[in-house]
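Most newcomers find our protein records easier to grasp once they have seen one. A record pairs a protein's sequence with a compact description of its fold. An example says more than a description, so a record of this kind follows:
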Amino acid sequence: MSTNNEVWIWAEQRNGRLMDVSLEILGKATELAKEINGSTAAVLLGDELQGLAEELVAHGAHKVYLFSDRQLAYYQSDAYTRLISELVEEKRPEIMLLGATTIGMDLAPSVAARVKTGLTAHSCSIEIENDGEKPMLIAAVPGWGGGMIVNILCPNHTPQMATVSPGVAEKPARSDQGKGEIIIMDVALNDSDFRVRTVEMVEDLPEGMQIDQADIVVSGGYGMKASGGLESLKELAGILGGALGGTRPVLDEGWIRESGMIGVSGKIISPKLLMSIGASGANHYSAGFVKAGKVVAVNNDPNAPIFDVCDIGIVGDVNEVIPVLIEKLKER
């Protein structure tokens, strides 16, 4: 059982830079800690990261457990798993959150298995429910092909763990007045920690405006197959000064890169305007833009789920609607 009310995060860094999702889940951890009258802690691994530890404190961490070693500069699956698991087993936090990034999705299940607890993956919503005995982490994920949202609990084991998709939570404000303790951990590594070794990390930087940074996003679904692809939506996005994204089927068709996929297994975005075109609107997709200011949807099926979540809905053939939209926008 847990021996404290701490809510932990794993603070992911790459090349000495904190990932945005690490600060986002720190903000969520702060919210959860307040609800259980607890505190927050971040676990940070790398090389010469005192500055990042101080940033975590400035963003609200009450404690930062800092593992610093030259061999930890890049993510090392076995080493990171062992060091974090041993610390978790010693301190037994109530809750632990990790970002649902490529690396987080490798690390989280490894740690959960080692400390013998459950894990909810790709959470799109995190809440606390107090039942009088212990605080329960309610982690919501889309299930059954996106047909419903499922709440998952882990009542009998700690820590209660979840990975949280980027964009689900908001970054906390930074304050130079933040007070927290940076705890330097002893690092003892051995050959078994490096059965597989990361020797280099190369980032494939996406081109053009990104969907998680744009005020306007045009998102295409598989219904665009009738148009032969997303060329018309690229033109529409260009006229609007927005970014182009899409659904999982669109990614599978090769029409967008992975960085442009919207949804629980892609990016959670909050543009001022989201235009969803040719997408039915399954929960795992629409959960990706619940924070959008306005949603305009175009689909030829009047019963499509997308019309339950949009502000303006247009029932029609994309091959007829999109050219008219482009023409009218050009006129203006």
Q: What stands out?
A: The helical segments are 20-35, 50-58, 77-91, 102-115, 231-240, 248-252, 283-286, 318-331. The domain at 6-194 is CATH 3.40.50.620 (Rossmann fold). The first helix runs from residue 20 to 35. The mean pLDDT is 91.
